[in-house]
């Protein structure tokens, strides 16, 4: 699939339901899926990141580092 092409809803649903795109059943990893955030396997439980999307992973680790930094600042007071 080309970068300029947007997958249709049917393809997105197929990718989400494919057990091969879920590592250990909880981590979504699909290099074909351009989305950074995807619904979890059980959609009412929220969203997760696509660990095959570099931007989403960088955002995830950036947020985690921010929370560690804030927690460290608070605990030093």
Automatic annotation (TrEMBL):
It holds the Pfam family DUF5808. It comes from the Bacteria. The keyword Membrane applies. Residues 31-56 form the DUF5808 domain. InterPro entries: DUF5808 (IPR043831). Keywords: Membrane, Transmembrane, Transmembrane helix. The chain crosses the membrane at residues 56-74. This is DUF5808 domain-containing protein. The lineage of its organism: Bacteria, Pseudomonadati, Bacteroidota, Flavobacteriia, Flavobacteriales.
């Amino acid at each position: 699939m080309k970068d300029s092409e947007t997958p249709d809803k049917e393809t997105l649903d197929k990718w989400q339901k494919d057990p091969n795109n879920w590592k250990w059943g909880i981590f979504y990893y699909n290099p074909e899926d351009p989305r950074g955030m995807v619904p979890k396997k059980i959609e009412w439980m929220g969203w997760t990141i696509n660990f095959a999307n570099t931007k989403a992973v960088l955002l995830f680790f950036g947020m985690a580092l921010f929370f560690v930094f804030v927690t460290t600042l608070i605990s030093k007071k």
